[in-house]
Amino acid sequence: MIGTLLSCVEGDITSHPAWEQQLTDWRIASARKVQDWESLVVALSRSTRLSFEVGFGQLILDVRDNQVEDFEKHIEQVRCMLIPPLAATAMESYSRSYESMVQLHLLHELEAAFQSWNASVAAGDTLGSQIAMAAQGTGSYVDRMRTYQPILDKRFESMAPSFRVKEEVARLRQLAFYEIR
Predict the structure, then answer these.
(1) Which of 66, 84, 102, 164 has the most neighbouring CB atoms within 10 Å?
(2) Same domain (yes/no): 39, 91
(3) What is the domain extent for residue 28?
């Protein structure tokens, strides 16, 4: 179904080139979900504005290509982009700010996968510290993930019982922790 969405978006862009920038986020999201890396690279190269999807798509490519410095720079940029809208909507209501919190959650999941793959942790980094503790005495990725899994499970259970949100997190976990490398 997502592959069909990518085909529809690509078709709409071909038929109506003026719509390209409005459809960029859809194009990036569908390309990353079906793991069409070539389409993702093309969509990112044609994007003229920074959005969560643009930043997240770039982060996925950074993970896939194991670009440590780029990943660290890009994740900081995306987080900084999300904080002001989150602060503004959180003052109004929890439900209005939930989408930004989900996006931050997705960033956390991707960062956990990236750090687990690389076993590169910063001493002052909370997530890094958790992964470092998980890695003590064990060197394999599988052992680190077994130890860190309960933390991920707790985070997953604390999310709202929305199929759309939980499915997105589960799909990202499958991609980031198991399929991308």
Answers:
(1) 102
(2) no
(3) 1-49
Torsion of CA 101, 85, 2, 153, to 10 degrees: -10
Residues 151, 152, 157: CA angle, nearest 5 degrees:
100
User: Tokens 């002052």 identify what position?
Assistant: 124
User: In this predicted model, what pLDDT tens digit does every residue of 38-77 receive, in sequence order?
Assistant: 989 998 998 888 899 999 999 999 999 888 899 999 999 9
43 shares its domain with 101: no
Burial class (CB in 10 A: 0-12, 13-18, 19+), 166: middle
Q: What is the pTM of this model?
A: 0.77
Dump the DSSP string for 77-112.
HHHHHHHHHHHHHHHH-HHHHHHHHHHHHHHHHHHH
